[in-house]
Amino acid sequence: KQSAMVLKSVLFYRHSPIHFHFITNSADQKVLETMLSTWQLLSVSCSFYSIENLLRTVPKFLNKKFFTSYDGIKLMLGSILPLTVEKVIVLDDNVVVLSDLQQLWTFFDVIKAERKTFSFVSNTCLHLKSTEHFRECFRANVMLLDLVEMRKQSIFFKFWDTMSPQANVYKIIKTLLMYNTLLPCEWNVRLTNIQECSQKYRIIEYKTIDELILKIAEYPSLNITLEYDNFLLKYLPKEHGRKVESSALERKLTTYEDVCNNLKEQSQVQFLTHTFFYGNSYTPVDEYDVTLITQLTMDRIRTLHNLLLHWNGPASITMYGDESEKLKVMQYFKSFSLLRPNLVIHIVYRKPGSYYPINYLRNVAASAVTTPYVFLIDLDFMPSYGLYSYLRKAAELLMTTNPRRALVVPAFEAFMNNTIYPKDKPTLLEQMKELTVQPFHPYFKGHTPTNYTKWVKASYPYVTNWAKDYEPYVLVRSNVVRYDQRFMGYGFNKISHLTELRAQGYEFVVLPDPFLIHYPHPYSEDRLKVVGFFKVCNKDLYITTYLNELRDIYGKDSLYSQKGKTRDIMIKIE
User: Fold this and answer.
1) CA-to-CA dists, residue 341 to 89, 178, 280, 398, angstroms
2) Which pTM does this prediction carry?
3) Spacing of C-alpha 354 from chain mean position
4) pLDDT tens digits, residue range 18-43?
5) What dihedral do alpha carbons 215, 217, 220, 223 form, nearest 10°?
6) How far apart are CA 93 and CA 326, in angstroms?
7) Strand pairing partners for 381?
8) DSSP secondary structure code for residue 43 in this structure
């Protein structure tokens, strides 16, 4: 998250092409690669270096008390970066840039004139009495390094070979004093002591995002924004005046052909994606662990809150919104203590005028899963209590013998928002008798094959017959085929995925005990955009194109509706 912030701040103020050298771990490298590739930045290139490998080469005497291993890596950049790289500006990920770094680059002329090697902001350290004060005097968050001179003079290459740790630290200090040209304080102002530099603030150093947000509110004169226009960041400032391509929702579409052609255009749109905005790669608890996958717009955060109260297992969630919304979401999560180790949140940034990229959002969440199984669900459905543990047991008993099974959790709907959530299946059956709950959308075919009449009395899992337009919520193996991203907005986005599972020969097994309940809610803004010909276009894509593609791949008989009696699987899941 912090790397993304410093990256955006640099791009926001740049006036020149730029090359980033990222020294990072393998997990963060994947996040940055995804972000940069989906951003489609112009005049920007990058290289990556493994920090895990570099840390092994840093001497053991460097520690937090004296001089960290990460600082040691910075002083070894002359040997780490290619020889073709002659000068670099080094930034830690806990800074935010408020000026064009080209202005900072001009200080290399000062370094050369003074015959120095590097430059950074420093307090007076000439009378330094203890290495304990080292990091107070030398701020390595922002540095300018002349790598040619460092290589020529072999600075910091062999200073730790024979000396004691204490002597080595003092040698580092002496060398820094000898070869350093001090930067003006405006190029590294500490947020905790914002008054220490009376000049214009060009780079701010902070400890935490929360601290930064508070200071922005306290000091509006800092002119810091965390809400960058992601589209403008793609271009150099001289290109900011260019006309943004008008989208399907911004044009006046009057015919069926117009809408469908624009839907095809929209499906090719590349969305800026920040994977693992919150959380890290999760370690499965066992070989039957299950991750819940879903997606949402930021205005549905309260619904997500309720979902997470019902599901205590790992979850991979993709949110669709802009910069301001994402910060509000994180504040909401923290205030209600919803953040937890087995939760990861990804951000896909809204592109003005675009249709809701629902299947792309699902695929982003699925790509981050590390468990062997996933539970594919829509946000509006609340899982029955204990569903996570139940699904792990079901996966153990039902999926090991036939991995091409999709375990169906039946869906229901409550008529009123204040309907009490049933604690178990018997309670749900009582509510059905009282007509406060019913099978989900019984007037549509989407869930009819679940066979609710049989489920009411079922004690064992049963294989149900797949039929056209069946779209249940299922547990499947995590290597399941991804969603087709051509389906956007509302209509056929989930049906298309489950139809491909059928074409691949999946068996749909209905679980006898758990359930999902949908509560009524207003349509989201993105759903309201889908009007007129739009759903017809999705239907046409599904029937005339998608189904024929599946038949070509899996055979013309792969999509026949199944008939006959359901078949019980005599395994008790407890």
Assistant:
1) 34, 46, 8, 28
2) 0.82
3) 19
4) 999 999 888 889 988 988 888 878 88
5) 70
6) 19
7) 518
8) S
